[in-house]
Amino acid sequence: MSSIPSPIPVLSPLRMQRHPRVVVVLTVVLLFAGGGLMMHAESQIQVLGLLAAFLVTFAIADRTPLGQEIAAMCGDYGGFANGVAFVCALGLIAVFHGEHYTLLVLATVALFSTACIALNLQLAFAGMANFAGAAFFVLGSYTAAVLTAYSWIPHPLILIVSGLVTGAIGVILLLPVLRTRGHYAALVTIAFGLLLRSLLEVNDTLGGPQGMKIKGFSVFGLDFNRMSSIGSWDVSFYLPYAVLSISIFAVAFTLIRCIERSWIGIALDTVRCDETAASVFGLSIARWKVVAFLIGNAVIGVAGALYGMMNGFVTPNGSGLGDSLLMLSIIVLGGLGNFWGAVVAAMVILVIPEKLQAIQEFRLLIFALLVLAILLFRPSGILPRPTRDLSRFIGPPGADA
Amino acid sequence: MNAPLLACGGLTMRFDGLVALDGLDIEVDKGETVGLVGPNGSGKTTFFNVVTGLYKPSAGSVRLDARDLFAKPPQVIGRAGVARTFQRSRLMLDQSVFDNIVVGALCRLDLGLFTNLFRRRRWRDELSGMVDHARALAHRFNPAIADRLFQPAGSFAMIDRRRIEICRALIGAPRLLLLDEPSAGMTHDETRQLMDDLLAFRQEMPDLAVILVEHEMDVIRRVSDRCVVLNFGRKIFEGSFDALIANSDVQTAYLGVSQ
């Protein structure tokens, strides 16, 4: 048998392997450029073209050896790739510095992705379905609304306090059902979402169905809503929000990634996979569920608080079961346990319907079909969760330091 | 005479009307291997579930080295030094072999949020210690497992999954190990290999007490120091393997009454 020469000698794997970081940078920059164009695109043709380009790219990455190699490299250099992604996101903000709408979309995707990563911590790691994601998100906004209106707490602290409040409320919900097994916790979250919405709608102190105004974010006398230039550079007032949203996303991403790649991540996976084995080996089921629920809801609350401050108001509307299901469908679509999958799916769910007027009316139907298709043909999502490989934190075997 | 490591007295487990364990007395000494046999439904696995705290026994006593473990939660019993394997493999097949094995020692590791998230250097030191430990343990059973420590457990054959499960039970340095039908679903040769592994391992942990539930009489003969036979939740025989073979009650329990 004669060996077949590589058809693309320039991109031969050997050559790529010599410069993995270059490959990673190029890949991430390309993906973010595509994502940026998608957020910016206005004509239907552009959107459809970009969508097609993404599908082709995905098929190449998924099916061809070259694409798989590049995808594996991005995985091997995960930390580096994430750093590059952060810089790219800041780059996008710089490119679109004057465009209100594009920056708003970018910040929205970042904040919803943050919430979805938190839901991943709860569902994909600890195995707890939280059907009140949107309710906790809105709860964060309301906390920020109340605190900005009635207190002098500096705004960065308000973000943290909103997280603590939502986290604490989540734990209070969970405590009574900790002794049960199965789906009781999920039922409680559904009930909580429904009750919260009714409560907010009838409560006049919190604005009733009209909701509340929220003051814009300001820090050290710098009011984000009045910001119109940096030096001699005219910018949209959404620019600082976009930067802060991306930063919050990066912090949440790093935090929850650290949790995953630690003893806690293994404990959570064990509790999810097999409560019996977990308890026989001395792990407290209740403790780890509380930890995942607390941290997850706190992160959702922080994202919700900033989202409310950016929009300037909050209403009970966004807190319904439908919105919570949308968040869960984002993480199922993206791949349970894969954070970048959640970002991709958030783009699909939040951005594309805005851009494609034709599907606006049918968006829920299309999401439902999309989720069904994914569950049927690719049950682990667009980007499946990779097996945790802790060997990256230690030297090669035998080379003990 | 030394007190036994595990002492169960009058252990009774009722499920509504059904009596699964009926006044069972079992004692196991340090370093001893006890073979637990009996027909299907005679209460062997129930006994394991009661000793590990998965079922709350109705009456009796369970003591590990004079410490009362009767009706304690499984977490307390696990931390006291009782480890087990399961009849049906209970591994996390999507997770790596190392992740699965380290579960057995997790409750002894530093699970604090602060250490795990912010003192990563310290966590890495602990990690590298555990990786060495797990690799050495897995190597003892099968070098191929040690070489693929970070591959998903689901990519291994049944016998290796059993070995991984035994490694998971051993990494926490238990004082009592409960093996629930380790040979289930394996071929004759595989069973023999696994027993060789166990016997070799046994010599390195002379203080470890083992209770082995098994249907393969060959395994019981080779591995156990003493045998206990259960039938309808009662102990019908206790003694050496040779005596077991000759015992008429045991023959009746397994084969029915001869006319």
Describe the fold and architecture.
The complex is a heterodimer of chains A (401) and B (259). Helix content of chain A is 68%, strand content 3%. Chain A contains 16 helices and six strands. In chain A, strand 4 and strand 5 form a beta hairpin. The radius of gyration of chain A is 22 Å and the shape is globular. The model of chain A has no long low-confidence stretch (mean pLDDT 89). Chain B is of the alpha/beta class. Chain B folds into two domains: 167 residues, Rossmann fold (3-Layer(aba) Sandwich); 81 residues, no CATH class. In chain B, helix 5 crosses helix 7. The radius of gyration of chain B is 19 Å and the shape is globular. The relative contact order of chain B is 0.18. Chains A and B meet through helix 10, helix 11 and helix 12 of A and helix 2, helix 3, helix 4 and helix 5 of B.
